[in-house]
Amino acid sequence: MSDPVTALSNAVAEGPVRVAETGPHGMITLRGDLSSDAVAAAVQSATGVAVPEVRRLSSAGDRSILWMSPDEAMILVPRAEVAQIVTALTQALGTAHALVADMSDARARFRLTGEDAHLREVMVRLAPVDMDRFETGEIRRTRLAQIPVALWMPEPGAIELICFRSVAKYAFDVLTVAASSARVFAE
Amino acid sequence: MSTRLNTGGHRIDRSAPVTFSFNGKTLKGYRGDTLASALLANDQMMLGRSFKYHRPRGLVASGAEEPNALLGVGEDGRFEPNQRATTQEVFNGLVSTSQNHWPSLEFDIGEINSKLSRFFPAGFYYKTFMWPRSFWKHVFEPVIRQSAGLGKAPQDADADTYEHYYHFCDVLVIGGGIAGLAAALAAASGGAKVTLLEQGPMLGGRTLVDEDPALAAEIAGMVATLQAMENVRILTRCMGAGVYDHGYVLGYERLTDHLDAKDGPRHRLWRIRAGQVVTATGAIERPLSFAGNDVPGVMLASAVRDYLVDYGVSVGDRTVVVTNNDDAYLTAIKLVEAGLTVPAILDAREGGAGALGTLAEAKGIRVLKGHGIAKVKGRKRVTGVAVCRQTGEGAVTEEIACDAVAMSGGWSPVVHLWSHCGGKLLWDTDQAMFRPDATRPPRGSDGEAFVRVAGIANGVMDLDAVLDDAVAQGLAAAQAVGQAGTTPADLPALTARDDRPTEPVWLMPASAKRDLRAKAWLDYQNDVKVTDVQLAAQEGYESVEHAKRYTTLGMATDQGKLSNINGLAILSGALDTPIPQVGTTTFRPPYTPISMGSIAGEARGETFQPLRRTPMHAWHEANGAVFEPVGHWRRPYTYLRAGEDKHAAVEREIIQTRNALGLLDASTLGKLIVKGPDAGRFMDMMYTNMMSNLKPGKCRYGLMCSENGFLMDDGVVAKWDEDTYLCHTTTGGADRIHAHMEEWLQTEWWDWDVWVVNATEQYGQIAVVGPQARTVLEKLGATGVSNEDFPFMTFQDHVLAGIQARVYRISFSGELSYEIAVPAGQALALWQALLDAGAEFNVMPYGTEALHVMRAEKGFIMIGDETDGTVIPQDLGLNWAISKKKEDFIGKRAQLRDDMARPDRWKLVGLETLNGSTLPDGAYAVAAGTNANGQRNVEGRVTSTYHSPTLRRGIAMGLVLNGPDRMGETIQFNKVDGTTIPTKIVDPVFYDKEGTKNV
Amino acid sequence: MLILTCPYCGVTSEETEFHGGGEAHLKREGPGSDDQAFEGYLFHRENPYGVHFERWRHVYGCGKWFHAARDTQTLEVFGTYSAQVTTPPEDLLAVIRDKRPGWQWRDLA
User: What residues 71-130 of chain A have any CB closer than 8 A to a CB of chain C?
Assistant: First the structure.
């Protein structure tokens, strides 16, 4: 048995904004109508976390769910819980039309930390998102330079971001370049 | 001569001297100088040669509109041609060189063109270099290459970095003059998020030059108020480069161009999305068209004033002012006040000026009303002017010695940004200018106007009205974004000058004869003269857009800044059509050129493109892999060993795999999970084959066509369980096919219960190939994998080397083969385990080239080789994979079209050269006769061709007319040397036709 | 560069997050259709200088296809709406009639 490794072996770039690849994480993709009661009840019972509102993140303890589209959610759990939650969720969904898949290895995940305003300035060098109006608990799928990503702010001063595993190095490289550039609107 | 005065120059810091060079000469300037002002301070008036005639050219302007002073700046990795001396600030160590001359600035061979100017008329490129054709290579092109072009391309990689910056604001104000500041204050007063861009280093604009110096303090107060507001951002050295659809604006910020030490990004490209845009971009002074108006020393009157007031530089000791308006009188007055001589003001208007005229005369300046310049004397520098009556043909009334001429033909509002996105202009006859037509603005996504123009840019020329207009526009913009504000308090009080109206003067003198008109320049940068535009009109180029292209008037970086109105007016005169009917050409972004680096942003070097890497990428890199791009993926083409070339390495990999064991990193193959009660029905629509009747645990090779019938992808489908399928796609196809499936599910069959997940990157996939493949699997712990227990085209779950794996027994090589899918995070561990377990069989990883050769040896098609978007599966002999039972699938209807069913479509066959050589890729089979164009007829083409190390000869596949019916026939494939290769048509399966190896 | 609002996730973003997908409300013609109908479905597209109905996909965002009603002349976006309809919603048509009296697009007016 070998332990899973992340795409970049948890690479870190230190600086005023710290860029770190984290993991391995548990990431479970759920395809199903998130507005359906059956799906909501199954998700709640299997994960203990409520289905999030549109473009929001919901959390309970060390588990979170990201709203990805009206019929897709990304369930973030500790790696060791993945198999059990996939089984429990599949069972709880019963005959409801849904697809549950362990996608823990398909993506790379990054955590950026630093002064909140500085973090936002790092993101706007790469993504066409109005970060001044981006809220904690909001999730945004967008374009980071040339790749698709999903990003959210779990708390002020931190941004979490996921992208496909194959482009992890590209994401890390562009993030570290952007993080190394000086602030424009420093107070 | 031009020189630095002992006093004056509010932009320069006399306590901070700066050293720079021009054409190898070391010169001194001050911090705050532009390269232009510093060069003038060193009496360097002549700065280049003109584009076509190589005439000596000097500074004309003091800002972004400068047409002549384009210099090469920097060295090596920081060299850049065509930098405007007027917008480049000096710094210690700046290296600048003049351009467009040969062999030197002072002595230039191309100047002979000027003497031959009658032979270089408008459109001369089109007229002259047409014939004879053979002259192009040996005569025209070498001469043009030697003498044409502005500057030289850099030779080295750019040493700097660049970045983009997305920015969102409610109101974007472009222009940091007094109108922009007032508009920003008004716009921000209700809380709207306001961003202000100023292209120069300093806020305040022309007011600081032209108005009472006491106003400087009031402007500083406005700036301080704005800076204290949390909802306001101010960016200097940041040009509004272009205005685009729906409030998108590009800002071009120059971060290090003015600094001694270059640290951090050089330029930042602001990608701004604004709710409302207010352009407060002021106006540009127009030149006057008189003979010799391009002689170094002839400058815009405002520029003469700028150099004096901003930088403490006098352009000349004796400056003649020539004008058709009052504003130029200010230049004369300021020059005299600075102790310089103004021998005369030549005012083309019979009535002369208003209050400024009185003031000038009170200062003892001689004013000649109704007069103009017949011709400027001097070649590399003005030595005097010949004066004439404006109304005549140019009879000289007197000559005045001088070393500078300050000219003013009136002012043109800078309407570029208004016009970039469709804002229309109207001709203001009274003021003789185009100005924005507020009733025809650029419109945003909601259909409402999103650009407003404030102040002088809006054609509001009276100073007291400028602030009112700016405030009104700023408030309107705030209102439009729902953040209505109030009129800011404490705005400076400006009083209107008592100016007499500008009188249009399009040619000086009005009835100038040809010899004068032929030396009166309209467009300095492109060397377009009054006579050129007149000739264009005479030759029928009546549309302004045609005349522009025929003469090159206003093209390139000028974008009509200086030349536009004068050129239009001449065209209008030549056509005897009023200016509004002649219209204006299109202003295109960027306002002035921006660097290529800023456009690229972070997309260069390692981050030029997002390269996709498999979990084994680092291992490949460390073990001799030569990569090839497949989409954004990098896949090993082959793995080189010491002393090997690529050809030898590929052969080694193939022979080893066929004889014992090879490994392929197949992680890049697309893997799409399709699940739901309607999944079978959906799969039957996606694939040409019947997929719904596949049994769980089984695999089937499938084809996908587009709706127009052409083959677009292929791959093995595995049925995971009763309502779940795993679709393998080609490496390049995963995203495309995923999108294709989602499109049909979302937009056509949205009532079908099917979900699709792209699981491509969840799995690392390794193909274990060769006679020893089963043994290796068993060594890693698999049991029950005999040919009977684990037959071809099925899959099973196994634990291999402690890793949970799904093993597909499928083959793309004809060998016994297993493709093993494991979570990507454990794929490298499995790869290593397979290498260890296979060591006793001399296991080797193989790359894409070996993969291609082995599949071709088996006659398997490859998407992108055998297909090119015009090939249907029937062309490839794949009828067996097209269901005849299904009523419908994507592409079925199209394949019923006449053209798809015609009997003479080229079809897939194998090809063997008679001499065993390898056919050239893409070669055509030639046939008898010629087509309607006199070209040889063809009857087929090569789609894949390789040297087969297994068979020790060339093998190929191709599409041939009636190919499958012509087995054994010999046809001829062409070579680039004109000869042909006799080639036999054979079955495309070259290797192990009986399938004895895959057991 | 346009801005569009995805009706599924509510994001308003610039065009680079989206991907254009051609004309909206095409009716698929499968096996059994005659040549003329199939030709129309596969090849014939409206190309108006004015009101147009298009398909877009929020490709960098939630991945959903949607419809947009847009003026190709002024670039005004009248609205975006679900991909799962065969004709534009009536309230959107009313807006277009109000803003562009006399417009026509295929059999809509």
Answer: 72, 128-129
- Quick one: A94 and A111 in the same domain? no
Chain C residue closest in CA terms to A129: C13
Exposure of B582 in the CB half-sphere (CA atoms within 13 A)? 27
C-beta of residue A175 within 8 angstroms of C-beta of residue A169: no
Domain that holds residue C78: 18-25+48-109
Please tell me whether residues B395 and B418 are part of one structural domain. no
Asked if residue B483 lies in contact with residue B192, where contact means CB atoms within 8 angstroms, the answer is: yes
- H or E, element range at B428: strand B425-428
Residue A77 lies in a domain: yes
Sheet (strand B367-369) strand order:
B298-300, B404-408, B319-323, B345-347, B367-369
Contact in structure between B975 and B902 (CB atoms under 8 Å): no
Query: CATH code at C100?
Result: 3.30.2270.10
Residue C14 touches partner B, C-beta closer than 8 Å: yes
| Residues in chain B where the model's pLDDT stays below 70 | 101-103, 107-149
User: How many domains would you assign to chain B?
Assistant: 6
**pLDDT tens digits, C50-107:** 999 999 999 999 999 999 999 999 999 999 999 999 999 999 999 999 999 999 999 9
Using the beta-carbon criterion (under 8 Å), do A55 and C16 form an inter-chain contact?
Answer: no
What is the predicted pLDDT for the residue at B496? 84
Are residues B464 and B530 both part of a single domain? no
CATH number of the structural domain spanning residue A167: 3.30.1360.120
Q: Is residue C61 part of a domain?
A: yes
Question: Within its chain, how far is the Cα of B529 from the centroid?
Answer: 31
Q: What is the DSSP string of B371-406?
A: EEEEEEE-SSS--EEEEEETTSS--EEEEEE-SEEE
CB B158 within 8 A of CB B608: no
CA nearest to B322, candidates B390, B264, B373: B373
pLDDT digits (tens, 9 = 90+) for B27-75: 999 999 999 999 999 999 999 888 777 788 999 999 999 999 999 999 9
> Which residue shows structure tokens 């060069």?
B39
Q: What pLDDT was estimated at residue B493?
A: 84
Strand (E) positions, B209-349?
A: 232-235, 238-244, 248-254, 267-279, 283-285, 298-300, 313-314, 319-323, 345-347
- Give the list of residues 6+ apart from residue A74 with CB closer than 8 angstroms, or none: A27, A28, A29, A30, A65, A66, A68, A103, A150, A162
Mean pLDDT by 10 residues, chain A (187 residues): 89 98 98 97 98 97 98 98 98 97 98 97 98 96 98 96 98 97 86
In a domain, A61, yes or no: yes
Name the A residues in 132-171 with CB < 8 Å from any B CB: 132-133, 145-147, 164-171
Question: In which domain, by residue range, is A79 found?
Answer: 26-102
Domain with B358, as residue range(s), is 292-409
- Interhelix angle A168-180/A116-123, rounded to 10 degrees, is 120
B300 and B404 belong to one structural domain: yes
Is C8 inside a domain boundary?
no
| CATH number of domain containing B568 | 1.10.10.1100
Are B167 and B279 found together in one domain?
Answer: yes
Whole-prediction pTM: 0.94
Window B:812-851, CB contacts with A under 8 Å: 823-826, 828-830
Instruction: Tell me if A136 is assigned to some domain.
Output: yes
Q: Is C67 inside any structural domain? A: yes
Contacts of B757 in chain A (CB under 8 A): 29, 31, 99, 101, 103
Angle, helices B215-228 vs B178-188, to 10°: value is 30
Boundary-marking domain end, from B726, B743, B762: B762
- Rounded CA gap, B901 and B999, in Å? 38
- Number of domains forming the structure of chain C: 1
